[in-house]
């Protein structure tokens, strides 16, 4: 590992000053960054430790403020086990608990979870081609081992997926990200936070290099009774998703009033299924309608050989997740 | 809660706990990488990034100048390994172990091309990243299925024929299928590690992860041409190995060379990624089985072909087709075993070597045949039960597999199994039952044990055997306690040191069977010595401490040996197992959950019930890993492993492990040794993967013949 400087700014403002300099990297839980440094994927000159900044809290909805705010430094385990989160957004709790292992969830933060890099094997092996790690070197996965890779929104530069479970739930819950920059704060809709690889796969998201995630804001909703996060993976715990689905329904007398669907393990970002959601509104909560919605969700999906099974697994998982959400199983 | 299910053995709670359990769970047990000593330095290996070819140039300047670096050793500046040099008048063998830093040739991706030594591990790791090599790459091959036509028969074990060839083809009911066991890496939790220290020009001490301290000593003595007596190997604790520490590997030689260069002790600890290329693996093996039976389920013929991968510089052979020769009574059996040389590192034995691979194919094929004949798979096996060894006609020393079938079937609830897949559903999941049998030779070899009774009544037993986790020290303590009639806590079993009396390498499930008799012999001899001391009329189990005191002796000791026995001259000797598995399958998503497992072992007398149970559970979990998730994946364009870490190479976690009932027949084998105890490590895994695959088929009708059985292969 290359030698680096360690700094611990006292305030958010001081942190913003430091991170704007090239070669610096923020560390929170470090559950991904340390791996990346060990493998030589990233070699920062400066590590900016933000763990002591006041960004930990989880707020309650108060009065007419119908949102819950989760600080960027709240631990994945804290959020997953928080009784209000479990009550208001069981989907988020389920997604968090489907991710990583208890040890990792006790270290990893909400902001860090959003900022984690892909687990593509070509990205991690510095002797392999990878446009995300080293732009212009090619994509090793495109013609290579791509069982875990994207079927939606990929480019000829990159077919990596974002590995988070939490983000899939936050995308489905229409969360908003508050970020701080030198010019003040701004808000990014969660579904727009991560980006597709396009011509610049080295850039994972729309956070500017000199910005810091402050908190995630989730509007309250009527999905808590009919939510489910289904993750299909190669083992029952501590494995990244082959396909995961966050499904949330608002059902009134067997009729779907509102639906939210997002998928993980299929794209460079949490993949919202807007068309499937719209289709479901006004329909009865039945397996047949769920399967139809799943079919609509697969428009534009492209397999690359090793991951082509996802073209079949994804709709099956959507249907299964919706059945769980609707209480049909 | 688990009820007391074991009818033939005391429950686990009744067995003696591991003698070193407390040391292990408190972190007090010291493993090779944990030793430290004055002047200790750290070596980090640099691996080749091409798969075949040679090094053109290797730039070590930046690494050499990096802070704390003491040396960068490559083929250009390495001291010669005397044992690797060609001997005058002797032809150079065309194949052999990789010669470390010998020349510029590259045989596999990840082959060590340099070791960087520094004053701290972090500095060595950083400097290693600065070593830059230029290569001349040649076209490589790392893919077995595409290169099966290059297969060749290994010397002495290619072809076997009994009765008519391909007799299965004319059977009224038959199955012919191909089966794949992919490359699987041992991946013990403990990384391989060595500390090498030269105490003089011809005296070497190593603290090393090894399954055989004497083998390691002899290998290093031969390679460095020093007397074996001058090589001391310490390996007191080993954190799992499963076969990966059965031989001396390049990183060990590199550490010894580096220690020579820097004249200081050097510690080399492999990274998890190194574990995939540096210490062997279960070789990728393609198999084809043709099997036929009469309408009433009598086997008429088995043809079993296998092609396993090896490196270009060594022929590694194992016995995948052996199970087809001897598992069932079948008049016509022919087998063929080929090797395919690829540009990869040499494989090595991994738990149930050969048999685990072969049993996946054979026990899957038998299951397929049972559906073709429409007969219960358990009944099919009983119909073809071998009462004598089919290949030799020799009687078995003991075989209680039929009892094991019955016991296991009762435990899993085999009666609930339906012959037709997709017949049983539970909470939206298909329910299926499967079984698979295992067998492994019951081996035994010579061992020597020193037994020393101390003045305070403590008995010290010493032998050079390793304990890689099964509980060797515990089993030997139980044997000695019974022999001497003293409490177990008065016994100290010392092992894992080459200066102790010789014992075999821990492998092939032979330790208890081999070292146990030597312990019995040493205890018998020691008691006799006490008898002589006491004179006529002494009791068989005197108060040893009192006798020593009366005779004013500080201690009394004997060194006794037992041989390998000669049972195999007249008998076919094996341990046997059967695994029963109940699975739940989600047909839409392909997810398989193991609901329950019952494993029955017929391994003679069980010496240490508690550690035996752990051994079986560990083997079953290894089998679940092999069945459902383990696979070391190479990108064949580059010849590099793509999932060489514990996030992407999946081994079962707690969430994957259901209730596992470990059951034992526990009837002594009078031929194997005085205790009647046979090996049980390998059979705990052999047959397990097929049991899972068969259960998956029984549940949802999907037959998976290429492991692992991941959701994509089961869904839809």
What can you tell me about this protein's structure?
The complex is a heterodimer of chains A (329) and B (716). A four-stranded antiparallel β-sheet of chain A has the order 4-7-5-6. A four-stranded antiparallel β-sheet of chain A has the order 8-9-10-11, with helices on both faces. With 329 residues, chain A is of the alpha+beta class. Chain A is globular and about 60 Å long. Chain A has helices at 12-19, 33-38, 76-81, 83-88, 90-98, 102-105, 110-115, 121-124, 166-172, 190-193, 274-280, 287-297, 310-326; strands spanning 5-7, 24-27, 46-49, 67-71, 176-181, 184-189, 212-219, 227-232, 243-252, 255-264, 271-272. The mean pLDDT of chain A is 97. Chain B is α+β, with helices and mostly antiparallel strands and 716 residues long. Chain B has four domains: 1-30 and 398-432 and 575-716, Aldehyde Oxidoreductase, domain 4 (2-Layer Sandwich), CATH 3.30.365.10; 33-138 and 201-238 and 245-271, Aldehyde oxidase/xanthine dehydrogenase, a/b hammerhead (Aldehyde Oxidoreductase, domain 3, Alpha-Beta Complex), CATH 3.90.1170; 141-190 and 280-393, Aldehyde oxidase/xanthine dehydrogenase, molybdopterin binding domain (Aldehyde Oxidoreductase, domain 4, 2-Layer Sandwich); 445-564, Aldehyde Oxidoreductase, domain 4 (2-Layer Sandwich), CATH 3.30.365.10. In chain B, 24% of the residues lie in helices and 24% in strands. Chain B is built from 17 helices and 26 strands. In chain B, the strands form six sheets. Chain B has a seven-stranded mixed β-sheet with strand order 3-5-1-12-9-10-11, sandwiched between helices. In chain B, strands 7-15-14-13-8 form a five-stranded mixed β-sheet. The radius of gyration of chain B is 27 Å and the shape is globular. The chains are: A alpha+beta (329), B alpha+beta (716).
